Amino acid sequence: MTQFDMPLDQLRAFRYDETEPADFDVFWAKTLGEVRHHELDVVQCPVDTRLRTVTVDDVAFNGFGGDRVRAWLVRPAGLAGPLPAVVEFIGYGGGRGLPHEKLLWASAGFAHLVVDTRGQGGLWSVADTPDPYGTGSSAPGFLTRGISSPEDYYYRRVFSDGVRAVEAVRTLPVVDASRVIVTGSSQGGAIALAVSGLVPDIAGVAARSPFLCAIRRAVAVTDSDPYAELRRFLGIHRHEITHAFGVLGYFDGVFMARRARRPGWFSAGLMDDVCPPSSVFAAANEFAGPVHVEVWPYNGHEGGGVDDDRLLLDWGANLVAGPDE
Asked: In which residues is substrate bound (predicted)?
């Protein structure tokens, strides 16, 4: 893959020219109001993993519609807290996996909540959270599920689960509720970015190669999945193009970024043909809080990989450092 998108100087100045839905804030206030009619009902159960430097709990809470959402809580063994926390959301098709796959943040002294994505877990890591809702016509995958209306759209449920995950982790005695960061890569970055726009008092958000940003542009400049799911759908449902993009506007990370006022950290690979760099910069350039974009000129969707991990650990530790840290 080559650098197929804009030059870097144009990316830094790029503004997405789509108009957000006029009732964007009303829609999300109503959605979260409905979600909060259900008690969180957080249940935390110890898990014997044979890991000795971390403690692992299986956590469940009520997400959208009162549906149970599962997560792992991985934290340093022997530390009573209150600890800063990282809530991590998972990339497209994956689930929370197994606890030993996620040790980095706990090793750095954080409580780490690794959240399932409802209905996923069939592509590259296991999940334990179903999505008990049918949809109308859609392309294989998740991007077009329920696209007939904002109320039925799949990511309404997913983003709501993300908000509830932050609310759930804040109830845990080991967590300092004022020091919660949200993060994720690709789809996980999209969820984290949405949560940062919907939960104004988180400590910060790190979105690595985030999906669902500048959606109309992204689907026009890349042939790669998952955006290709939408292209295939609209290639069949030719008379639904305007309506579909109208629905997607409620879930676009650019419009979420406008409402995110805490510090943000983005990562972009300039050869990323999955989430094109212009879509990432479109969100970063609208981000309402202090923002940093880490650029990797010769990387694709993986971005900086382990180098992103290293830089993000430094950023997160500095962001939530307590008086004795």
From this structure: 92
Active site residue 225: no
Strand positions, DSSP E, the chain: 43-47, 54-62, 68-76, 83-89, 111-115, 175-185, 204-208, 264-269, 291-296
Look at residue 91 in the predicted model and tell me its pLDDT.
96
Say whether 287 sits in a helix, a strand or coil.
coil
Tell whether 92 is in a known binding site. Answer: yes
**Bond before 297 cis per omega within 30 degrees:** no
What's this model's pTM, rounded to 2 decimal places? 0.97
Q: DSSP alpha helices (H): ranges in 14-103?
A: 24-35
Q: Which domains does the chain have, with CATH numbers?
A: 8-317 (3.40.50.1820)
Which of 185, 209, 273, 301 is flagged as catalytic?
301
Per-residue pLDDT tens digits for 54-73: 999 999 999 999 999 999 99
Residue of 161, 252, 272, 273 marked catalytic: 272
Q: Any catalytic annotation for residue 272? A: yes
